[in-house]
Amino acid sequence: MSFAKLDDHLRKIEALEHALAILGADEATHMAVGGGEKRAEAMSTLAGIHHARATAPEIADWIAAAEGEALNEEQQAALRELKRAYTNLTCLPAEFVERQMKARMRCEQLWRDLRAKNDWAGFLPALEGVVALVREEAALRAGVLGLDPYDALIEQYDPGNRAADIAPVFDALKTFLKDFVPQALAVQEERLAKAPRRPLAGPYAIDRQRELGLAMMGAIGFDFTHGSLSVSHHPFCGGVPTDVRITTRYKTSDFLSALMGVLHETGHALYEQNLPKQWSHWPLGKARGMAMHESQSLFVEKQIGRNPAFWQWALPQLAQHLGEQWTMAEILPHVHHVERGLIRVDADEVTYPLHVILRFELERELVGGKLAAADLPEAWDAGMRDYLDLSTIDNPADGPMQDVHWPAGLFGYFPSYTLGAMMAAQQWAALKKENPSADDDLAAGRFEAIADWRRKNIWSQASRYSTPELLERATGEKLNAAHFTAHLKARYGA
Amino acid sequence: MSFAKLDDHLRKIEALEHALAILGADEATHMAVGGGEKRAEAMSTLAGIHHARATAPEIADWIAAAEGEALNEEQQAALRELKRAYTNLTCLPAEFVERQMKARMRCEQLWRDLRAKNDWAGFLPALEGVVALVREEAALRAGVLGLDPYDALIEQYDPGNRAADIAPVFDALKTFLKDFVPQALAVQEERLAKAPRRPLAGPYAIDRQRELGLAMMGAIGFDFTHGSLSVSHHPFCGGVPTDVRITTRYKTSDFLSALMGVLHETGHALYEQNLPKQWSHWPLGKARGMAMHESQSLFVEKQIGRNPAFWQWALPQLAQHLGEQWTMAEILPHVHHVERGLIRVDADEVTYPLHVILRFELERELVGGKLAAADLPEAWDAGMRDYLDLSTIDNPADGPMQDVHWPAGLFGYFPSYTLGAMMAAQQWAALKKENPSADDDLAAGRFEAIADWRRKNIWSQASRYSTPELLERATGEKLNAAHFTAHLKARYGA
Questions:
Q1: CA distance readout (Å), A22 to A210, A293, A440, B239, B270
Q2: pLDDT tens-place string over residues A277-304
Q3: What is the per-residue pLDDT across B346-402, written as a single tens digit (0 to 9) for each?
Q4: What is the mean pLDDT of residues A403-413?
Q5: What is the bridge-based pairing of β-strands A237-240 and A227-231?
Q6: Which terminus in chain A has less CB density within 10 A, N or C?
Q7: pLDDT in tens, A96-140
Q8: Mode of pairing for the β-strands spanning A227-231 and B227-231
Q9: Which residues have C-beta within 8 Å of that of residue A402, sequence separation ≥ 6?
Q10: ipTM for the complex?
């Protein structure tokens, strides 16, 4: 039976993915510094074996044969999603993939060097090469998938999302934020004028910060029999669903940065740990995509972790683990700090979407051929001035050279961040409709009912539906920026 | 060129070995407890891919073709050693390997359960099955290699070692120890009667013990850019030469047990870290075998780490890291404690060889068909009474059910432990001949000259020679028990 053959084949592929995921997490957490070269060789060999097996031509034959077999509804869904994933994985010619990989790697290496030197002119030719190739990629994918070119790129990260649906939602959000950011800053200024911010004093011992993080992870539902917390330079959630590796990094002068990082990665981890285990080796059983994944991390970090109700429960935890008493009035100005800045990854939840919308608008035009890479510094600067009243014209390192995504050839990924933030707000609103006492639950440290809602509506559904379908089934409506703007107004407004 | 094809193929195999080694070390140190099942699937899939590539029939063709190519002396050595390894790896029919693997796994699982219950009768049928298969294996290997059956098993662990050479050396050692153990115990008793042992008080904080271990590792030559120390239930040295993972386990009541474990594993690690890097993917570039590896760990643990001169340097280290002052007269009774016991892994360096010699004698007869598994309890008890004046007749759990080796089908491995101890003593004697101030070096914490001797004579030679050839080249003579007995007499005699 071909379905059984696929099942067997996918188990082998899962084993290779397991090895790659653990080796990757290990590299960032426990590897000796001199082990990198051999590790890269090992992972590249494994990735090659994995790619060969995941794109094996017999998979197409087995899928075709299995479509004629008597399958139950779940098996049919598994087959559909496998076909989609296989098509996306095999629609580029091997010659093109190799050419593109080389250009991306060279551009990314160059970027690491030249960003530090603020050398846009030196960087531009490599970026132009990557942009030319991504246009070619988008056209190739579009031809196979029957989508617009930019949508064909998005499809790899968030199946079913379309720029034509995203753009009006982003436009509405942008219009709102251009007014709202100055308001939120004025509100903040007024509050701080009345009561200055209590500084984070420290030093906060790392082992105590770690214990605090572990206590919160456990309370929120992280399963320590299937995961762990360690340290890395850049926080991440990696590993495999049966052994989820999350990391943070500690500063002894500030307990909040590590803690909010732990909450964010815990959100990713809960999704992975609660996926349906029996389908773990099929695309059907994997997390839906980048936007949905980000909605899960932001749900825990922003909807739960920066909710004032949460801090009623959290303050005694702080006192217990750090030995320091904070009041609500003292902690919230830190948790809800808003600031205009040039750097996306440092941005707060109010200003962050403007960074993303700028990138979405620019990369859509780049892919569509309406903008040349050479014109990015001016376009970027114009956007930043319009959206955040900041200029980057003399500072491309913190402008269009800021992120690794474009040098690495990742176009279509940026929208996921803000889509995730909006989806998290929409999920919280839907959950509150069903469970009006959710804030009381947070204040009392009761996280079970909230997790149950997410397990039923998101986690257990894995990749059964497209991103917009999954959101609509979970929340009862299509993506709606109003939930996110209402959330921001309630938290940061007058 | 076939040599180049082999080189390329071996690099791919090394990548798979890298993945398996890191996944294995990770499983024992950082894996979440619930991650075991998927990890086993991943490693079993990888091991299957590795085995298929390492035994690929084209390797035989490439070796044959390369033998006709113009190769330098080192390449010829590499080809010879590859041929030897390939022959050992491929000389069993796949059907047999599968049958044996199943019997071993069942027997090992049964052993874990029934040893705890002291149930020899329940365990015997499974062990009989494994013994029958190991006899079959030995005959198959012997036929291909032209060796005696038991030697054909040893050949996998210590190439070139032969039971006919080992037996007389073990006999001489046994004769010596049967007299010497009572003497050493009497000497110890007399000393303790004069000055009772100062107890290890504790508690010794784990992070301080860890710092002490790291300081000693670093002083002895462990390269922290290519390795690390962590914690596991059973101490081991794993990972890969560019990233050697050693572990220990801590008791807060006793700093010596973790520390001596760290020194032992550091000995293994130095060997791995100092192998010739350019040959790391060829069998030529790997450590010679189990006995030579054990000689390197025991060199650091026993010849260096239990040497009184070493403790002149080490006592101030103890004081610094643990905050506790010890005198030589106080610490040496702990470092040189001798005790008759039933358990091999708990034995000291005086009594340990008798545990091994007993196993060597019994397994040689088991493989040779002169002893039946059913007769093991009586034979074991007779040996223990003769060698150590202890009985195990009512206690098979601590007799022939004591070790995992036989249930796991590992016959021919046990001699390596005591061969390693003897080789370490012989190496130390040879080193002292060249460098008479070696003890002064230890007392002053100077480990470079000692490491240089080992690098030149052992580590850099990797698998260029057979085990006995390597020993003879390094020390100028064949295996000679006199160095080990002289070492014991000097340290434990009157």
A1: 22, 19, 38, 14, 26
A2: 999 999 999 999 999 999 999 999 999 9
A3: 999 999 999 999 999 999 999 999 999 999 999 999 999 999 999 999 999 999 999
A4: 97
A5: unpaired
A6: C
A7: 999 999 999 999 999 999 999 999 999 999 999 999 999 999 999
A8: unpaired
A9: A115, A342, A343, A344
A10: 0.93
Residues of A in contact with B42 (CB under 8 A): 14-16, 18-19, 22
Q: Which one of A39, A71, A103 terminates a domain?
A: A71
What CATH number has the domain bearing residue A444? 1.10.1370.30
Mean pLDDT of B220-236: 97
Q: What is the pLDDT of residue A494?
A: 87
The type of residue at A307 is N
pLDDT value for A290: 98
Residues B444, B313 share a domain: yes
Task: Please tell me whether residue B166 adopts helix, strand or coil conformation.
Answer: helix
- Arithmetic mean of pLDDT, A195-218: 96
Same domain, A259 and A378: yes
The reply to whether A327 touches chain B by the CB within 8 Å rule is: no
Q: Are residues B185 and B36 in the same domain?
A: no
The overall average pLDDT reported for chain A is 97
Integer angstrom CA distances of residue B472 from B166, B186, B383, B452: 15, 35, 32, 18
- Per-residue pLDDT at A201 exceeds 90: no
Tell me whether residues B32 and A240 touch, CB distance under 8 A: no
H or E, element range at B247: strand B243-248
Residue A115 domain-assigned (yes or no)? no
CA B116, CA B122: separation in Å to the nearest integer? Answer: 12
Element (H, E) at A127: helix A120-145
Cβ atoms < 10 Å from Cβ of A164: 9
A243 and B39 in contact by Cβ < 8 A?
Answer: yes
Instruction: For residue B319, tell me if it sits in a domain.
Output: yes
Residue B66, in any domain of the structure? yes
Query: Cα separation of A135 and A93, whole Å?
Result: 15
Whole-number pLDDT of residue B201: 86
Distance between start and end Cα atoms, chain A: 64
- Which of B215, B197, B164, B110 has the alpha carbon at shortest distance from B447? B215
Q: Is A73 on the interface with B (CB under 8 A)?
A: no
Question: Tokens 């990924």, residue?
Answer: A413
Q: Which tokens in the block code for residue B449?
A: 């000259």
Q: Which amino acid is at A339?
A: E
Averaged confidence pLDDT in chain B: 97
Give yes or no for residue B202 having a pLDDT over 90: no
Q: Which residue has the tokens 């009392």?
A: A444
Structure tokens at B22: 């890191």
Q: Are B172 and B35 members of one domain?
A: no
Dihedral sign (CA B207, B213, B214, B216): positive
* Residue in B476, B474, B491 with CA at minimum distance from that of residue B439: B491
Do B322 and B212 form a contact (C-beta atoms < 8 A)? yes
Question: Among the three residues A71, A100, A126, which one is the final residue of a domain in this structure?
Answer: A71
Residue A92 lies in a domain: no
Query: Mutate which of A10, A22, A214, A272 to disrupt the B interface (most B C-beta within 10 Å)?
Result: A22
Q: Which residues of B389-427 are buried (b: 16+ CB within 10 A; e: fewer)?
A: ebebeebbbbbbbbbebbbebbbbbbbbbbbbbbbbbbb
Residues A392 and A254 in one domain: yes
Q: Is A265 a catalytic site residue?
A: yes
A44–B15: do the CB atoms touch at under 8 Å? yes
Are B41 and B181 found together in one domain?
no
Give yes or no for a contact between A402 and A169, defined as CB atoms under 8 angstroms apart: no
Of B19, B225, B240, the CB nearest to A46: B19
Task: Give contacts of B18 with chain A, Cβ < 8 Å.
Answer: 38-39, 41-42
- CB pairs < 8 Å spanning A and B: 118
Range of the domain at A180: 159-494
Whole-number Å distance between alpha carbons of A419 and A293: 10
For the stretch A5-44, pLDDT in tens is 999 999 999 999 999 999 999 999 999 999 999 999 999 9
